[in-house]
């Protein structure tokens, strides 16, 4: 509505009306000059006749007088034309009227809604540029973070791989440090650690624990006469028998040389005696590749019956019982506190 109202308002375009006035005056001037020019044709003809009459003899006096009158009229007409033209120029400002140049079209006035829309579009464009700039910066930062994340992930994978290798190596070292190379049983060091733990548990909870020490009879003869390979085979055969006839919670180890130790967890002295006598019965029936019959002597000590709750005292008591069985003729089970070793039986084992 604002645009159309200004388009039809005369006061809003004064330059246009001034241009129209100049054009009208110029047309009037042309018509006036044309009328004066036409009116001077006859005086000009009269002037021409006057020039002709001026050459007549004196006897033609009246004709010459008429010629002078016509000449005056012609001069007056020409003067009128020239004077009119000069007067018009003076009235128009001393310069010939020119056609006014068309004024430059004014831009249409914008309403409040249009201005708001243009400003909103400009702000939207600026916001879009800022958002695009921020997105570009964010993309570069994100790309850098992703690259660093990949590097960190690769480093973490290498670190995890190295940790697993160290863990595996540590487990192997621990296994090697706690295992016997010949029999693959636990060694004396590991047995001592577990014995300490079970004695401590006995002190807290008063749960029974027993130790069985056994020594192969005549092993030296097998090792010397048949060689170390036969001796190692005998040791491995003894380990298989102990593992086969023991519970999983028991700790079996090669204590040294041809001597083995078994830690019987949650086992009283009576239960330890049954276990040792069963092993003593099975061992002679085991077939070794060297063909010789192998027997063993056993010594047992238990908590709380035999000694104070001390690992060293418990081992010492079991060792004393073992040597009592050896002195009594071997292939026997001896219990600490009862130094009368059980006699070897030729029939079925009492443990069965």
In short:
62% of the residues lie in helices and 11% in strands. The chain is α+β, with helices and mostly antiparallel strands.
Helix fraction by DSSP (H/I, runs of at least 4): 55-70%
Q: Give the strand tally.
A: 6
- The name of the CATH superfamily of the largest domain reads Reverse transcriptase/Diguanylate cyclase domain
Helix-strand pattern: HHHHHHEHHEEHEHEE
The CATH architecture classification of the largest domain is 2-Layer Sandwich
Briefly note the CATH topology name of the largest domain: Alpha-Beta Plaits
Unreliable residue stretches: 1-17, 346-352
Mean model confidence by pLDDT: 77
Write the layout of secondary structure elements.
Blueprint: H1 2-7, H2 14-39, H3 41-53, H4 61-91, H5 112-178, H6 188-205, E1 209-217, H7 219-226, H8 228-244, E2 251-256, E3 259-265, H9 269-282, E4 295-303, H10 311-327, E5 333-335, E6 338-342
Parallel strand pairs: 4-5
Antiparallel strand pairs: 1-3, 1-4, 2-3, 5-6
Helix pairs in contact: 2-4, 3-4, 7-8
